[in-house]
Amino acid sequence: MFKALFYPLVKYFSFFNIFQYISFRAAYAAVTALLIAFMFGPTVIKLLTKLKLGQEVRDDGPETHLVKAGTPTMGGVLIIISVVISVLLWQDLTQFYTWVLLITIIGFGLIGFVDDYLKISRKSSDGLHSRFKFFGQIAVSLVVVLILYYNRNDHTTLLYVPFFKHAVVDMSFVYIPFGMFTIVAFSNAVNITDGLDGLATGLFIIAIIAFTIIAYLTGHSVFADYLNIPYLAGSEELTITSMGLLGACVGFLWFNCHPSEIFMGDTGSLALGAILGVLALVLKKEILTIIIGGVFVIEIVSVVIQVVHFKRTGRRVFKMAPLHHHFELIGWAEGKVVTRLWIVGGMFAIIALSTLKIR
Questions:
Q1: Residue 107 belongs to domain spanning
Q2: Residues 263, 268, 274, 280: what is their CA dihedral angle, to the nearest 10 degrees?
Q3: pLDDT by residue (tens digit) across 188-237?
């Protein structure tokens, strides 16, 4: 919005030329989202506490988590509001990528909100029935993928693999179910990872930094040509979205770090995970995102392994799934688990970024 309002004034005052620069708008998108989260965080926490919208803890979880019962949840609302306001102010609203990202974060955020509300109202860790939750994810992801498919460019349906210069296959119409799977899978992966104070938030911050760099490079013809990655006109605006997400999550982490004053809940985790999936699709980094979000992938795979192995043998592979709970039960303090997984997440992000040149 600011670009549309102020950039035309450049013919009167050269200062307003600054609004055409992605770097300027991206930086202030982050600052805007960060300040909103900082300023309204305490108010949101007080309001959620007053409304008794507290977390319900799993009965079969680690005993150390019992003290977390009643901690305000639905904190994802703070993240979503911060991001949406930031994007509307600083991003080019004529770019359809802007609206794809907004539809994603609001759509998945609403699904998570309903899930969180039902958990609280029922005073149970079981919220929205998995069948309805999955249907909602499928419905929103279908809308998003169809928008991308029917506004496709030369690269949309191509599948790129790290270390290869050229696309390995044109998925054609298979792109639609593939895209839906990507969005839903990452949405659930982040949701499952959100089990310790600051864990999912910190890992998402690491991942979104990587995506900020990728979005800027992909939308810059010179850099894209130099790195031999697909140049996607307009995708540079996603740098602003990514920075807005970064600012919002850093602001939220201020309140979400151990001991957490507020949890993002499914409202935040489902939305943030879906955003990773959509960024992967738009920027043609579907496979690379498995590396960028490596910890998220490991966490959801640990649950799959645990469930499948238990059903077949009646025995567990891990003391508890997802994996972060296994580490807690073998004696690691919560802070140590979170910090070490952040370190692993950072390593994955660095490896992913290195593949942009190693081709």
A1: 2-354
A2: -70
A3: 999 999 989 999 999 999 999 999 999 999 999 999 999 999 999 888 99
CB 229 within 8 A of CB 217: yes
Residue pointed to by tokens 């949101």: 44
Q: Cβ distance 266 to 127 under 8 Å? A: yes
Identify the CA nearest to 215 among candidates 284, 166, 157: 284
Instruction: Write down the residue that tokens 């390593």 correspond to.
Output: 347
- Mean per-residue pLDDT over the chain, rounded: 91
Number of structural domains in the chain: 1
Q: What is the mean pLDDT of residues 50-54?
A: 74
Whole-number Å distance between alpha carbons of 47 and 191: 24
Q: Say how far apart CA 229 and CA 357 lie, in whole Å.
A: 9
Please tell me the distance from the alpha carbon of residue 258 to that of residue 123, in angstroms, as a whole number: 24
Place of tokens 């659930």: 188
The reported pLDDT for the residue numbered 73 is 85
Task: Report residue 197 as tokens.
Answer: 């104070």
Nearest to 3 by CA among 24, 21, 19: 19
Check residue 1 and give its pLDDT: 82
pLDDT at 4: 81
- Of residues 90, 75, 73, the one with CA closest to residue 33: 90
Compute the distance between CA of residue 166 and CA of residue 84 in angstroms, rounded to an integer: 35
Whether residue 359 lies inside any domain: the answer is no
Specify the pTM: 0.93
Which H/E stretch holds residue 169? strand 169-170
- C-alpha to C-alpha distance for 219 and 230, rounded to whole angstroms: 9
